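Two proteins, back to back. First:
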Amino acid sequence: MKSVSKAAERIAKLLKLDVETVTLRKRCASIYVYYENGDEEPIPIYCDNCEKSDMQEVYTALRNMMFVLSFHPKHSALKPIREEIIPLS
């Protein structure tokens, strides 16, 4: 849980987004990370499938999903921060 939490906090800080953590009491429940914009339906962008993951791996997966999401016309608010998500060479 710590690696996913730290990775989500790191990407949120980079993109200047808020983070909300919800803990369920179910043992070995998969950990999900969602992107939510206002009253819109939350979009799942990561699931750990009850596997231990390195924080950097999770961060890279989140960053890649946010980059892809930034191209969706419904999420145009992410377009201006696209270069911060994945800087162009």
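And the second protein:
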Amino acid sequence: MTNNTVEKFLILIQHPDRYRFIVSDQIKNAGLIGSILLDLANSDNLEIENGKLLIKSKNTDLSQSHSMILEQIEKSSRIRKIKTWIAKFSRKSRKIQKEILIELESKGIIKIHQRSFLGIKYYKTQLIDSSIRNSLINEIRDIIFKDSTISKENALILGLIEACKMHKIIAKDKSEIKICKRKLAEIIKSDSISQGVDKVIKEMQAAIIGAVVASTVAVTAGSN
């Protein structure tokens, strides 16, 4: 069973058949860190004041990665904005991602395949239990297209989908994408998303846009 948003995020973005993710690295990295911050805000470990993250409780049993990020924020000499933390932790996303994937492998959901090319080691991931991904997608579709009740946990992943613009993962065609965008926008503004968590979602959107723009500028500069 998956019991946190970051695990659900990695399951959703894993290709159902191939050994790869189905979103860009910028979205994957920002979404990974953003989902951990969503979990921490939802568990009352973090609170938001004037767009900045503050420690509310230093104790969490969510995961080792959640604890590490919480500890780094608590030890910081400066109080930083959410998007600043997302950008900062995104640089460490490779290590954090591997830790979460190892947890998913231990649960029999994915398989990590170790590879090597010209002496450089890397890994690929494969979805083993596709029923969990399908069940998660169907649960989200029921909320969007059948107005099913939104649980606190589902509210987090819905906000994440909206922040990362992952509508194509849920929708089957262009008409459903349009409905999905409208319904998610309505849900984010409703009482279904608790105060504080909605601010993390908005800041995460800004962080993702910033990451994509920065990456585009870097690629353009490198090609000149």
